[in-house]
Amino acid sequence: MKFTYIAIPLACLSLAGCVENQGGQSYAQPSAQQTQVRSGTIVGSRNVELQTTNPNDQVAGTLMGAALGGVIGNQFGKGSGNTAATIIGAGAGAAVGGNMAAKNATKVTYRRAWEVRMRDGQHILVLKQGGRFRVGERVRVVGSGGDAHLEHY
To answer: Where are the domains of the chain?
Structure first.
């Protein structure tokens, strides 16, 4: 009898999940995204070097250096001297590994910086890889900040 009292409510609850939404389909409204479009004239260009660093690479190098330094330091001394050598080895390994990773984590890329005089007289720089634009050409600047790019007018 107890089984019936438990089984019937559980069956009703499990079937309740199968009922479709009777109010029609509902959709999440996509967020409206506005893009800024301005026009201007290219007044100059130059090549620029961009350096970017990935901090995750440096953390990984520090951790690997600490582990390797600790293993090497553990080979020396006995008793508390062994513990001290392990700690010193881990610290030195972390420093060396972090420095090596920081040097290798920096990536250099080259871009073309286009100087554009906007219609309101403001000058901006747009970084672009490649592109066939000429000084004096009218262009559209689409987007803003780091997402801005040039299009032919």
So the answer is: 37-152
